[in-house]
Amino acid sequence: MKLMTKAQINAAVDRKWEDLHVPEWGEDAYVRIMELTAADRGYIEAGSVVAQGQNPTLKVESLKTYREKLVAFGLVDENFERLYSNKEIADLGKKSGKVIQRLAAKVQELSGMGQGAVKEAEGNSDAAPGDSSDSD
Question: Which of 5, 8, 80, 113 pairs as cysteine with 108 (C-beta 3.0–4.6 A)?
Fold first, then answer.
C-alpha cells in the first residue's frame, strides 16, 4: 500500500456533479449542480445553527435562505466555477420555490446531506472494521 502525498490529495478530483434539465426555465435549459466543498458545506451548516445563548432570530434569517445558499454554492458553469456569488444569493430567492427546492435537494444528495444521507450512513454503520484501528 502506498500512501498519498499532500499534492496528490489536493490534485484529486473528488466532487461529483450532475447536469439537470430545468424545464421551467426553458425547453433547452440545463444547469450543472456540483457537490459542495467541505468549506462551503461548513459555511452553510454553521449559518443554520444557533449556539446556546445566541439570538435565535439569526438562525431564522439563515434558514430563510438555506435552499438558495445550497443552490448558489452548488450551481456551476462548464468550467466548474460558481455562477452566483455570496452577494447574489438573494437573486435565487426570486425564482420558483419548486425549482429551487428541486435543485437544493440535488445539491444535498450529491453532498451527502439531508435525510437520505443519514439513512445511508446508518445503513453503513454495521460495516466491518478495517485492518487497522486507533483504539488499541
Answer: 113
Q: Three-state SS for 12? A: coil
67's torsion region: left (phi>0), alpha (psi -120 to 50) or beta?
alpha
- Which region, left, alpha or beta, applies to residue 50 given φ > 0 means left and ψ of -120 to 50 means alpha? beta
Quick one: which of 86, 54, 60, 61 has its CA closest to 73?
Answer: 86
pTM (2 d.p.): 0.74
Q: How far is the C-alpha of 84 from the C-alpha of 90, rounded, in Å? A: 10
In the chain, the domains with their CATH numbers are 15-113 (3.30.2220.20)
- 68-100 confidence digits (pLDDT tens): 999 999 999 999 999 999 999 999 999 999 999
Q: How far apart are CA 132 and CA 136, in angstroms?
A: 9
